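seq:
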Amino acid sequence: MEKNLDIIERSELDIPLSDVKRGDIPTVSHESTTEEAIRLMQESRQGAMAVLKGKVAVGLISERDLILKPDFSDPEWAKRPISDFMTAGPFSLPETSLLSDAIKLVTKRSFRQIPLTNEAGEYVSMVSIKDMLGHLVEYFPRQVGNFGVIKSWENQTVDDYSEMYSTELNGDGHLNGNIFMAHLKRVSHRRPAIVDESVSIGEVIDLIRFQKGGAVLLTRYETQLLGIITERDILLKAFKEGKVDPNLKATDFMSANPDTLLRKHYIAHAINNMFHFNYRNTIVVDEDNYPLSVIGMLELFKFVAYHFYGDEVSLL
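struct:
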């Protein structure tokens, strides 16, 4: 799709979801063990998969399910069928559904993935917020793509990024690409969970379970940012043959020296970093690199969708 526009009409997103470029995500049988599902997710580096019974998606299994639901004190938990931990009866859409409707649905209900079905109700593929956001930004290479990625901002000042953004909603039925040049400080965010580098991976998992998902930042002396541990880090690094040793140091599993952005960097910078480096959370810091917030791809997606569809969607 070759686009170079400043504004698109809502009607341009009235295309079937089958036309949206999607990732190749494996599936797992409802009869598979949890250990088998974990291994498949690790090998494919996917954060969620459809659980199939025959050709029908009867559930979704995600990193979050695998962290929040099992009883890790049970030595046999990973031998149980994946159906014990999946989110059963997932909401799905026909692949002929419109992208515009899917955007509003995701924004209202905070879905990260939606299974797509054919006319017979059989599973076809999965569409994610990353797929939909990727489709949106292709319309705006000037406002998004031209900014590139940011690995270091120490030699830049926050004044380098004057905001090119109007707070007015696009109620007249169009989306202005300048929405991607809004400062990150405008996006709803999660307060970061910050812990000392001395904690164990078991303590980090307990904290993620307590806050029902998200990420944990590891620091030295509560000031120097060392790394981040996400649900994906736990799935890919901490689960060994369906077991987790809670006593190991959390620093052994963190993504060290994570990229950070300032509150006055653009949404475009965060999107470009997320797509280029394949992560789902942006750490926002002050000029001393002290973490202020963690913004996920879902929060960015909701911000853009809200300014496109206004009262038709909700940020709550």
